Amino acid sequence: MRIPASNPQSSSPLLPVWFTVPLCLLTSILLTMLLSILVYMSFGIFSWNYPFLLQLALNLAMLLSVLGGAVLFLRYLDRRPITDMGLSFKGRMPDVLLAIGFAVLLYVIGFGVTLLLGSVKIISVHFDGGMLIGSFVLFIIAALGEEIMLRGYMLSRLMSYMNKFVALFVSSIVFALLHIFNPNVDLLSILNIFLAGLLLGSAFMYTHNLSFSLVLHIFWNWLQGSVLGFEVSGTSFGSSLLTLKLSDQRLLNGGDFGFEGSIICTALLILATMSIIYFFERKKQIQ
Known about the structure:
This protein is mostly helical and 287 residues long. Helices cover 67% and strands 4% of the residues. It has a two-stranded antiparallel sheet. Helix 3 runs parallel beside helix 7, helix 4 (129-159) packs antiparallel against helix 7 (211-227) and helix 6 packs antiparallel against helix 7 (211-227). The chain starts with 16 loop residues before the first helix and ends with a helix.
């Protein structure tokens, strides 16, 4: 159910959705670039050599840009309440726990299959609590920025303008395109990022709340990179709990892009998305 407008003007946007959505995305990207330049300049001026703090500052720059852009567009151009972004976690603990369980299950299956097929071997195990906590914070900030922009703002606004499944498809295409310049990217990995967009957006499509998609996004990245030791969307985040040796079977283990670049991930993302859509459609029929 759509959240009702909080003021009488909220039903009369100043500009059409097809214009404000790409404009908001462009604005957020430009603000992110500007703040990122300022971050790099600051670290250069003060000769700071702290990679973690640099990454943290860059992630915060992205989050502030996205959140600021979405809030300004919602309030002053779309004339919609900020609650449309679905950021409230009140009463959403079942969604949070389900998302964590979903992420764990997907990697238990996916990582288990790669081990059984011999495309991945565990070389060593190294526990570093500080690293695990620090990377978790980074993934929270990064996922929050992406979820606010792609699901909380874009998908929400598109669903007010077009069929919800078409809106989900469009937002997932944009999600994939935003990763097209990531290191070690190829056609399969971009396809999987698109499918991940479908998975993350499917629950929001029915609930209009980010709790499930945000928590799933965070734990998906954290388990993949900091725990299991894969690259995350082609990027390394330093040390991890497990150190892996990948075979040359990139189709099975994802190679330098990470597990998201594997055909196993493709199958899991399709099955997971279908199960979420089936659950909510079935729930609608019962009600």
